[in-house]
Amino acid sequence: MLAVAMALPHMSDLKSQISDLRSKAESISMQLGGWCQQLQNSDIKGPRHLNDAVREATNRRARQGSFLEEIKRVAAEGRRESPGLSSGEHKS
Fold first, then answer.
1. Where in the chain are the domains?
2. CB 36 within 8 A of CB 56
3. How far apart are CA 15 and CA 6, in angstroms?
């Protein structure tokens, strides 16, 4: 529709604005397409299948994943801070 508007003679003054609007519309369309693809590839079957138990389980899995990532990050930091200790040694 914006391409047609750009071709109209009385819209010649607005060509740059129409072009910018068209770029934004294309970007939004690509973002929405990506979100749709992500939802289609997710484990969620749809709003009809979501009850409180399923929502809680999904949230719990997400929190567990975040917690495990945080543990890994803290452990990696600890290894960087104490390079002189081997895995079996403890600080006294």
1. 47-81
2. no
3. 6
pTM listed for this prediction = 0.42
Whether residue 18 contacts residue 2, with contact meaning beta carbons closer than 8 Å, is answered with: yes
Angle at 84 between CA 81 and CA 86, to 5 degrees: 105
Asked whether the beta carbons of 2 and 21 are under 8 A apart, the reply is yes
Q: Which of 27, 29, 31, 2 is nearest to 14 (CA)?
A: 2
From start to end of the chain, where are the E strands?
none
Token pair of 49, please? 């299948």
For residues 6 and 10, give the distance between their C-alpha atoms in angstroms, rounded to a whole number: 9
Q: pLDDT of 6-34, one tens digit each?
A: 778 777 788 888 888 989 999 999 999 99
Q: Are 2 and 24 in contact (CB under 8 A)?
A: no
